[in-house]
Amino acid sequence: MIASSAFGRTSDGQAVTRFTLQGSGGLTVEVLDYGAIVQSVSVPDREGRGADVVLGYDDIAGYEQDPFYLGATIGRYANRIREGGFVLDGKRYSLAVNDGPHHLHGGPRGFGKVHWRVRALEDAGLTAIVLEHTSPDGDEGYPGNLEVRVTYAVSDANVLSVEYRARTDRPTPINLTQHSYFNLAGEGSGDVLGHELMMHAGSFTPVDGGLVPTGVLAPVEGTPLDFRRPRRLGEPIGDPQLGGTGGYDHNLVLDRPGDGLSPAARVRDPASGRVLEVFTTEPGLQLYSGNFLDVDLGKQGHRYGRYGGFTLETQHFPDAPNHPGFPSTILRPGDTFLSRTEFRFSTGPT
User: Fold this and answer.
1) Catalytic-labelled residue, pool 30, 196, 282, 313
2) Is the pTM of this model over 0.85?
3) Could you tell me the CA-to-CA distances from 200 to 28, 39, 268 in Å, in that order?
4) Partners of 253 in the β-ladder
5) Does the annotation mark 313 as catalytic?
6) How many domains does the chain have?
7) What is the CA radius of gyration of the chain?
8) Which of 110, 123, 157, 283 sits at 20 to 30 Å (Cα–Cα) from 99?
9) What integer pLDDT is reported at residue 226 of this predicted model?
């Protein structure tokens, strides 16, 4: 089932619509045509009681002013690019900088701050919407006109799938992701440090003081990023190896057995029994533990403090245009960028 409702108007007077996607298994997802934002995700606990498990706002003003990218679609480039620049085919490009000297999440007006065109789809056992956006040549400094399409689909098996497609008329970097903050106990219910996390990642990309990769890969063994076996998010969060981040804000290198969807992470909230499994075609996964969250007025008047939610951002590696040894993020004319991630919800025992 798909339904739509008004969600208010932006500060420049544009109407914003909220689309509700509902499957028969109990999963309900609401998406805005502003920012292609996931505004809510309601899923049952082990007793069948539903709760919204993503952080967000009850009005469009909250999203317009939001500095934390709650629920946003991120682009053209997720994560950081060092000093807002890169060289492509012998030419240097300068991007907008919005994270100290670095470029973060597509710049000050990335894909999470623009209107998207929407069309709805319904098929047997599947409810979906397609959102489309044209990023013009020179947008935040990027070359080429980029046509982007994001498809959100909800299945009766309680799976939220996110598929990205893009084409360009000039070579350009691209790295798209979904930036929902999850709290499987329910948004506004406190911190997520008791959630149990397991990740299919044996290495990570170490960063410098500006949280930009140094260009090497390092094993997770012996570090607080070793989640190859389940453990609580809060267990190693104070480890001095995490440096000044105050928690996790790291790109994990996924152990991919081949092409197609592969398991990336599994998270369980012991109290509610809710389980989130992430599968993706991407090579990396950014784990962020909400280290700097500070939202006074979230949904239902809730305050979101430090560690109030976590993100699992499927992606290519940060700053890849400046590291030839990383998987390439360059899209060229005639090629199609394609990325798919599934968020699979279920319940488990205490």
Assistant:
1) 313
2) yes
3) 27, 28, 15
4) 203, 284
5) yes
6) 1
7) 19
8) 283
9) 96
On the 0-12 / 13-18 / 19+ scale of CB atoms within 10 A, 55 is buried
Q: What is the pLDDT of residues 301-350, one digit of tens each?
A: 999 999 999 999 999 999 999 999 999 999 999 999 999 999 999 998 75
- Asked if omega into 76 is within 30° of 0 (cis), the reply is yes
8-state DSSP, 207: B
- Residue 292's domain comprises 2-347
3-state per-residue secondary structure call for 44-103: ECCCCCEEECECCCCCHHHHHHCCCCCCEEECCECCEEHHHEEEECCEEEECCCCECCEE
Which positions ≥6 away from 69 have C-beta within 8 Å?
A: 105, 112, 179
3-state secondary structure of 289: coil
Which stretches in the chain have pLDDT values below 70?
A: 122-125, 244, 350
Task: Please provide the DSSP assignment of 244-275 as one string.
Answer: GGSS-EEEEEE---SSS-EEEEEEE-TTT-EE
CB 93 within 8 A of CB 137: no
User: Tokens 């004319």 — which residue?
Assistant: 333
CA quadruple 22, 23, 26, 31: dihedral sign: negative
Query: Which ranges in the chain belong to alpha helices (H)?
Result: 60-65
Q: Find the catalytic residue in 105, 133, 179, 200.
A: 179
- Say if residue 6 is exposed, middle or buried (CB neighbours under 10 Å; 0-12, 13-18, 19+): exposed
- Helices then strands, each counted (H, E), the chain: 1, 27
* 177: its two tokens: 């992701």
Tell me the three state secondary structure of residue 150.
strand
pLDDT of residue 140: 98
Establish whether 115 is a catalytic residue: no
Q: Report the sign of the C-alpha dihedral through residues 305, 310, 316, 320, in that order.
A: positive
Of all residues in the chain, what percent are helix, strand and coil, respectively (each to 5)? Answer: 10, 45, 50
The token duo for 103 is: 């470029």
